[in-house]
Amino acid sequence: MGTASADKVPESDVVPKRTGVFVALGISTIDPIPGDVESKRSGDTFFGYRFGRVTVGMSARFQRYKLTFNSSEDGMNTYTLSELSFLPGVQMTVLKSEDERLELIGGINVGVVFRKRRVDSVGPAEESEANSVVYEGVTGLRYWLRSQVAVEVQAGLRGERYKISQLWGWDDITHSHSEFKSLNMIGVF
User: Fold this and answer.
1) Which of 176, 156, 189 has its CA nearest to residue 33?
2) What's the pLDDT score for residue 92?
3) Total domain count, the chain
4) pTM
5) Which pLDDT score is estimated for 45?
6) 3-state class of 32 per DSSP?
């Protein structure tokens, strides 16, 4: 009679759960292109449903950070920016290892960012809003520790098209591009 080794994980604990509620919590860094602005770090959440190789859901991200810059007219100024993103998206497992523990994934997210900017300068503080449409292309690796728990790394490109509404009455439409990286813990229930 053969017995299972104490070092081996039972097969049922290794194969990822194929369907269920998909939850990811993580941290990410967004690096603007060109790199003349500091990186932004944020906490990320993703809630969705996994069926087979496809996961569909909604990502939410909140960021708050300060930027300090030197203006030739006003001297030193400080921006305080707050951003809230909602990005519906689809991820797909492109390749799997033979034991199904390692997956190469790809995905697309498209959504909106609500941004409020406050400029604390020498005079009265000025505020503006810049709501944007965001699109992301994602690739990454997901490693299943157990059938319902995985760790994931992602990298991708992000683009934004936004309109800046200033309090003094003018609007501006612009584009920006960035790279992003994230580290996530995943559960499927």
Assistant:
1) 176
2) 97
3) 1
4) 0.78
5) 94
6) strand
Domain limits at 98? Answer: 19-188
3-state SS record for 41-84? EEEEEEEEEEECCEEEEEEEEEEEEEEEEEECCCEEEEEEEEEE
Q: Rounded to whole angstroms, what are the CA distances from 101 to 34, 105, 129?
A: 36, 13, 44
Closest CA to 156 of 174, 141, 173: 141
Cα distances from 72 to residues 24, 38, 75, in angstroms, run 44, 20, 6
The reply to whether 54 falls in a domain is yes
Report if residue 13 sits inside a domain. no
Tokens of 103: 């997956």
Domain for residue 125, yes or no?
yes
Alpha helices, DSSP H, located in the chain: 11-14
pLDDT at 164: 62
The pairing of beta strand 19-33 with beta strand 171-188: antiparallel
Other Cβ atoms less than 10 A from the Cβ of 13: the count is 13
| pLDDT value at residue 89 | 96
Residue 109: burial class (beta carbons within 10 Å; 0-12, 13-18, 19+): buried
For the chain, first and last CA: distance in Å?
A: 35
